[in-house]
């Protein structure tokens, strides 16, 4: 088995996109020890400050079970949690456990971990310079954002089913489609509760700005969850969402993903991709967004692309 030791300072160095000699069944291939004792005082302080910031924002915005599950799991402000302590509580409740990984790993090993009820958590934490935004999922995003939702038995079943479905999608060249399901539910999903719209997606729960934007901005669309529509929906990884997909319950989410997706993939391949700000005729629209933020974001992306092309042209001319 390949040994991945990471680095002592835990600074994220890049994606592990190379499968190496990984094969299905080698679920520990990308798993690394957390090395909790190696976290520095400053790293614990960064966790504390991130935690306090989110706890000022999330009450009344996060799904109701989130706060209770944080407490029950012992995920608190004082220190980065020890994975072993989390697993002592999480595994008896749902059969899940968290395992350390050095950073984002290839999709098939990721799917296989989920299929075996093992949730990969990055062992590194962002720096002060990355405090407000980090694209790669660190230990705060993964533990604070994802794990409290995994404490719900129905959502836990959904995540296992997603992992198994992901492996099947990989066999049928549909990873990009099932990836959209993860993005718009597990990372950026909203749920309708009795007291109003709430957040359950980890990408929102761990973001101070998107926690407010997703619920309170007039700019994005908010539509009812529909699996086949979602599989057609493009997303951008480096900005707020232009459309949020809203579920009624985790039971709805789990039931909707029970059928065999292979006919869905065949159908979706014949249909045009839906761009993030667009609405489809079949959408059940809960809020039609103004698109103001989407237009500005598109302009910024176009400008960044232009600058990149100019820089590449200048390098070739040297």
Set out the fold topology.
Layout: H1 41-57, H2 64-73, H3 83-94, E1 97-101, H4 107-115, E2 118-122, H5 139-150, H6 153-171, H7 175-187, E3 190-193, E4 196-199, H8 202-205, H9 208-216, E5 221-224, H10 227-231, E6 243-247, H11 250-256, H12 262-269, E7 285-287, H13 292-317
Parallel strand pairs: 1-2, 3-6, 5-6
Antiparallel strand pairs: 3-4, 5-7
Mean pLDDT: 92
**How many domains in all?**
2
Please give the largest β-sheet.
Answer: 5 strands, mixed
Write out the strand line-up for the largest beta sheet, numbering strands in chain order. 4-3-6-5-7
Key phrases:
disordered N terminus; 13 helices; 9% strand; 318 residues; 2 domains; single chain; 47% helix; Phenylalanine Hydroxylase; two-stranded parallel ribbon; alpha/beta; five-stranded mixed sheet
Structure, explained:
The chain has 318 residues and is an alpha/beta fold. The chain folds into 2 domains: 1-151, Phenylalanine Hydroxylase; 190-318, Aromatic amino acid hydroxylase (Phenylalanine Hydroxylase). Helix content is 47%, strand content 9%. It contains 13 helices and 7 strands. The chain has helices at residues 41-57, 64-73, 83-94, 107-115, 139-150, 153-171, 175-187, 202-205, 208-216, 227-231, 250-256, 262-269, 292-317; strands at residues 97-101, 118-122, 190-193, 196-199, 221-224, 243-247, 285-287. The chain has a 5-stranded mixed β-sheet. Strands 1-2 form a two-stranded parallel ribbon. Helix 4 (107-115) links the parallel strand 1 (97-101) and strand 2. Helix 4 (107-115) crosses helix 6, helix 6 (153-171) runs antiparallel to helix 7 (175-187) and helix 6 packs parallel to helix 11.
